[in-house]
Amino acid sequence: MIMPYIKNTDIFACPNDRTRTTSSNNVNFWDIDYRKKAIPRTYQFTGNIVTVEAGSALLDANTGLATYPYPLTSTPLGRNGSQIDESANTIALVEVWGPTMLNSDSGFVGSPSSAAFVLCDTWKLPGRPFPAQTASDRTPSVCSSVYHAENTAPGVGHGKGGNYALADGHAKFLTWGQVRNNDFAMFKLKKSATVFNP
Fold first, then answer.
1. What is the Cα–Cα distance from 150 to 186, expressed in whole angstroms?
2. How far apart are CA 110 and CA 181, in angstroms?
3. How many domains is the chain partitioned into structurally?
4. pTM for this model (two decimals)
5. Domain range spanning residue 77?
6. pLDDT per residue over 160-192, tens digit each?
7. Residue 198 lies in a domain
8. Quick check: is 196 in a domain?
9. What DSSP line would sit under 20-84, residue for residue?
């Protein structure tokens, strides 16, 4: 839908992203032509992620610039700007690429699982210390206990972090510590006065 405006798919990949992903033929893409092209995708928009603050709900409805996957739906709905407390301090797009994308459709333009950064995907963020040494190196406990995501290396990124687009439109390099701080506060629409420990 946006191709008439952007004119090419190169903008979906970081110029440093040299990862060559592979995808099995049974993976569904929104458009079958994209599966043949295998165009890399480095950036994902934020949906609902798992946080400590969400408690037993797990998915935090106060996170992400789209409602996917909360409530569970295949039709993500964008957020209104008035729902965001601090747009210059709220992450809209994340940069995720590297070993985490190997043998997966999630590193391709056109894949349903490629566009959204959701659930326990925070383990993929570049700069996350691996293997984890302290509590702040880890994702919320349900992610490590159920999904065992921390046993896989994070995305490559750029040294100790990655590039992020914020809700006000500016881009910024952030470290793992900055995005992990206070229960992934930069992913939250309404900022809490409560301090959360990992």
1. 21
2. 32
3. 1
4. 0.88
5. 3-16+28-187
6. 999 999 999 999 999 999 999 999 999 999 999
7. no
8. no
9. -----TT---SSHHHHHHT-B--EEEEEEEB-STTGGG-B-TTB-SB-TTSS--SS--BPPGGG-
